[in-house]
């Protein structure tokens, strides 16, 4: 499909699988998943359908946009803290092997690998600082089928107080490196990801060069957001960034639907973004690609 102006040229919107170490899926755990589904349907135009059997203890609303899966809203797992939050999952070839790497690198295993019917096999873990994330070994469910378009996943960010420790951990588990875009953000990169994307879009590097994208930007898989002293009560976590064609309108719509604007829309390098919370408290970011902001300070 043709590229859209709302995101960096070259970042193709359609996906059919990922490679190991790349964020591939997000879902929200909510005390009232039906209410959460109603909010996000109104905000992003998602069509949501509960895919759990009627007698199942929890709900799992699969979200689709233009017929393609983009995210989900589900019940909080039994035994987990009753806190609404967005979860990030990384594609792995073997959930068992990746879980072992997490443990060896100093992380904690919250849920040992288990099968999710015919959809895949997964585990849930944390890094050494306590930021939780999922490991997803795909079977029938091959992650988000649409990304980087308005209303879909655009990027994931690790919020951390220990950047050097995070570099060591995620380097050991996924083979990640970093790309410093000062005065912009620090990005996680993975060698070979650009090659993977270029298979579907042979003009990827050419388009990025024409847009004056930073060198190695094609290998970016996620972002680093350092937590400052002004956030003493904020735990390390993975945040979810959704693309939007209008950050200001998205913030206004979230408020109209009962959500909260945590950080009003502001300009940053390459983007205009806003930090929001849904009515149950799960936070997320909405971001519009703004190429004329490329030279803004951090």
List keywords for this structure.
alpha+beta; 2,3-Dihydroxybiphenyl 1,2-Dioxygenase, domain 1; eight-stranded mixed beta sheet; 6 helices; globular
Question: Could you characterize what this model shows?
Answer:
- This protein is α+β, with helices and mostly antiparallel strands and 298 residues long.
- It has a single domain (23-293), classed as 2,3-Dihydroxybiphenyl 1,2-Dioxygenase, domain 1 (Roll).
- 20% of the residues lie in helices and 37% in strands.
- It has 6 helices and 16 strands.
- The chain has helices at residues 33-44, 95-104, 163-174, 193-200, 204-210, 247-256; strands at residues 23-30, 47-50, 60-65, 68-75, 85-91, 108-116, 120-126, 132-138, 153-160, 177-180, 186-189, 220-226, 237-243, 260-268, 271-277, 283-289.
- An 8-stranded mixed β-sheet has the order 2-3-4-1-5-8-7-6. Strands 10-11-12-9-13-16-15-14 form an 8-stranded mixed β-sheet, with helices on one face.
- A hairpin with a 5-residue loop joins strand 7 (120-126) and strand 8 (132-138).
- The longest helix is centred in the first third of the chain and has 12 residues, at 33-44.
- The protein is globular, with a radius of gyration of 18 Å.
- Residues 1-6 have low confidence and may be disordered.
């Amino acid at each position: 499909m043709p590229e859209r102006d709302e995101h960096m040229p070259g970042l193709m919107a359609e996906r059919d699988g990922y490679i190991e170490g790349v964020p591939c899926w997000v879902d929200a755990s909510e005390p009232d998943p039906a209410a959460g589904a109603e909010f996000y349907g109104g905000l992003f135009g998602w069509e949501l359908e509960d895919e759990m059997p009627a007698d199942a203890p929890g709900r799992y609303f699969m979200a689709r946009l233009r017929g393609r899966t983009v995210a989900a809203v589900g019940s909080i797992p039994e035994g987990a803290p009753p806190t609404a939050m967005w979860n990030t999952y990384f594609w792995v070839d073997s959930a068992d092997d990746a879980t072992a790497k997490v443990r060896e690198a100093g992380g904690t295993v919250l849920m040992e690998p288990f099968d999710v019917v015919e959809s895949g096999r997964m585990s849930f873990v944390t890094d050494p600082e306590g930021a939780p994330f999922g490991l997803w070994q795909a079977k029938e469910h091959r992650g988000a089928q649409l990304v980087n378009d308005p209303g879909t996943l655009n990027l994931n960010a690790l919020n951390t107080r220990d950047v050097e420790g995070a570099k060591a951990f995620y380097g050991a588990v996924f083979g990640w490196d970093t790309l410093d875009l000062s005065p912009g953000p620090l990005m996680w990169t993975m060698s070979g990801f650009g090659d993977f994307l270029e298979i579907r879009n042979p003009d990827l590097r050419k388009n990025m060069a024409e847009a004056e994208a930073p060198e190695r930007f094609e290998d970016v898989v996620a972002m680093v957001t350092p937590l400052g002293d002004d956030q003493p009560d904020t735990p390390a976590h993975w945040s979810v960034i959704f693309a939007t064609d209008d950050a200001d309108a998205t913030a206004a719509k979230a408020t109209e639907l009962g959500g909260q604007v945590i950080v009003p829309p502001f300009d940053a390098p390459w983007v205009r973004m806003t930090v929001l919370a849904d009515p149950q408290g799960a936070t997320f970011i909405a971001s519009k690609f703004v190429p004329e902001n490329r030279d803004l300070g951090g």
